[in-house]
Amino acid sequence: MTHDHDLVLRPTEAQTAAALAPPPGRTGGDLVVETLQGLGATTVFGLPGQHALGVFDAVRRSDLRLVTLRVENNAGFAADAYGRLTGEAAPLLLSTGPGALTSLSALQEAAAASAPVVAICSQVPTPGLGGGRRGHLHELRDQQASVRDIVKSVHTARTQSQIPSAIAAAWESALTAPHGPVWVEIPEDVIRAETVIPQVTGVDATPHDLAPRPELTALAAHWLETATRPVIIAGGGVVRSDAAKKLRQLAERLNAPVVTTFGGKGAFPWHHPLSLQSWLEDRHMTGFLEDADVLLVVGSGLGELSSNYHTFLPTGRVVQIEADLGKLESNHPALGIHADARLALQALLETVGVREDPYAPERVRMVLGEIEARLAGQGLGHDACPERQALAAVRAALPARSPSFWDMTILGYWAWSAFDPAHPNTMHSAQGAGGLGYAFPAALGAAVAEPGTPVLAVSGDGGAMYSIAELATARQHDLDVTWLIVDDGGYGILREYMTDAFGTPATDATELARPDFAALAESFGVPAVTTSPDALRADLAKALATPGPSVVVLPTMFRMFAPTHLA
User: Fold this and answer.
1) Cβ distance 318 to 295 under 8 Å?
2) Cα distance between residue 552 and residue 436, in whole Å
């Protein structure tokens, strides 16, 4: 009997010929590149550094596209966005010590948002490993210890023969649900030395399926089909697993209202009769969810933002589908189904029957009306709210299929609740880890992933200064990104938080001296315009329609809606 694995292990004639006659002058860096190409990579992000130069030299001699940014953290954000949009693993090339450490907040965001980033980092030469006393430049006592609590898995290649297996194992880990960043570490001498190892011609890194247990989906289907007031919370796992269509099918079969988390924006059509949109930071929405007799949570851990700052206390049965075992039932007891969202929704669709409920759309209209009335009571109704008018201008200017990336800024906070993403996987923010400076470098990564599609980044003036150097990257690579900078002269959201908590902000901390952003952009060769609320739509539309990078500066003072988890 012949087994499939016997055929896989037997080299082809071409593989044998390549193994017996490798090109001269190959190094460990070539093994890195050959493995990445064998896994399907076409693009890598990163910054060169002394110990990693052998990898960058091999990339130079390959067909891989190298996108270099100016700061390692920003390169990580760009790789994160590339992974989110393509669903592919995004290689991130880093160097030892400072380069590795500078990438950590980007890797934290990738971990929080389950973005498949494969960070490949150099190390000091092999004799210096583990001691921290040899005085190598960039040396750390234990570099892996700095990343181990952030990334999904850590892989080490101490010899050249270990490089293909280490990278393949990392690749498989990054793309197995839940997706996430992984770390590969290779010493400088292993990277730079010439190698006698044959060319890498066959690499197997197939992600594992995470299928639900059938007895659990059978019970969940029964609960949902016989529920009186079922509601669905759709999280980022629905978007990551490309399961938006299956979610809609299930919601319509059950006549169950759907609210999306901020990480799940776009998982359900914004204007669908069953759409509760994304108003999670609202006591009316919290009450509506608490009143559900069966609550189906798909692809969300119900963390701080998704639970209205942990004020949400469900009273009915909860079914939670979650690929990350650490998030399963971590905040609320539930029928926990450890599975990929797409596979679990498919299992439910194959089991659940039709549930009639002609009143469900009316219940949705009622709660959205209550939310609108509350906002109007704060002077934040549609016609009187500059923040919502700005979001409407952005939505009107931005093509429906164009991705947008939002920093931790007041307009971004509004967008979590009030912005219509139009399609799945088109709106992303740093709300997973909450760091500043995400939007613009992430948008650059998105433009690499989807060439020819205009991309929008939205930052405040404080967050913009974290990634201002990447204007050079945008110009160098001629990336089609429009950067909207809302300039309010400080860290606006922190100004509001301090005022609410202490009566007055610490102005030395929250008020900022900042550059003339339009003039600064022009100095990089990036066209820029200073706009106004009335001209925002037209100026954004013009910038987005013009190929290449551009900057639109909006000097204005936005404010947040009042805390909505309070009675």
Assistant:
1) yes
2) 19
The CATH classification of domain 4-192, taken from the options 3.90.850.10, 3.40.50.720, 3.40.50.970, 3.40.50.300: 3.40.50.970
d(C-alpha 467, C-alpha 463), whole Å: 7
Alpha helices in 22-179 (DSSP H): 28-38, 53-60, 72-86, 98-102, 104-113, 143-147, 163-175
Helix (H) and strand (E) counts in the chain = 25, 17
User: 520: which 2 tokens?
Assistant: 């600064």
> Residue 477 in contact with residue 448, Cβ under 8 Å?
yes
pLDDT in tens, 478-534: 999 999 999 998 888 888 888 888 888 888 888 888 899 999 999 999 999 999 999
Helix (H, G, I), strand (E, B) or coil at 41: coil
Structure tokens at 172: 């498989």
The CB density around residue 29, as the number of other CB atoms within 10 Å, is 28
* Half-sphere exposure for 159 (CA within 13 Å, toward CB): 4
- Beta bridge partners, 317, equal 294
Q: Is the dihedral of CA 411, 415, 419, 424 positive or negative?
A: positive
Q: What are phi and psi of 117, to 5 degrees?
A: -105, 130
Phi, psi of 122 (to 5 degrees): -75, 170
- Residue 92 is inside which H or E element, if any? strand 90-94
CATH superfamily of 380-555: Thiamin diphosphate (ThDP)-binding fold, Pyr/PP domains (3.40.50.970)
Q: Are strands 258-260 and 317-322 parallel, antiparallel or unpaired?
A: unpaired
* CB-based contacts of 566, cutoff 8 Å, min separation 6: 283
Q: For residue 232, what are the contacts with CB-CB under 8 A and spacing of at least 6?
A: 247, 250, 251, 254, 256, 257, 258, 259, 295, 296, 297, 298
The answer to whether residues 182 and 164 touch, using CB atoms and an 8 Å cutoff, is no
468-495 burial, b for 16+ CB within 10 Å, e for fewer?
bebbebbebbebbbbbbbbbbbbbbbeb
Report pLDDT digits (tens) over 210-251: 999 999 999 999 999 999 999 999 999 999 999 999 999 999
* Statement: 214-366 belongs to CATH 2.40.50.100: no
Spell out the residues 6+ positions from residue 246 whose beta carbon is closer than 8 angstroms to its own: 342, 345, 346, 349
**Cα–Cα distance for residue pair 322/528, rounded to 1 Å:** 43
Task: Indicate the pTM of the whole model.
Answer: 0.93
The edge-to-edge listing of strands for the beta sheet with 230-234 is 258-260, 230-234, 294-298, 317-322, 335-338
Question: Looking at 335-460, which runs of residues are DSSP E strands?
Answer: 335-338, 404-406, 427-429, 455-460
CB 243 within 8 A of CB 342: yes
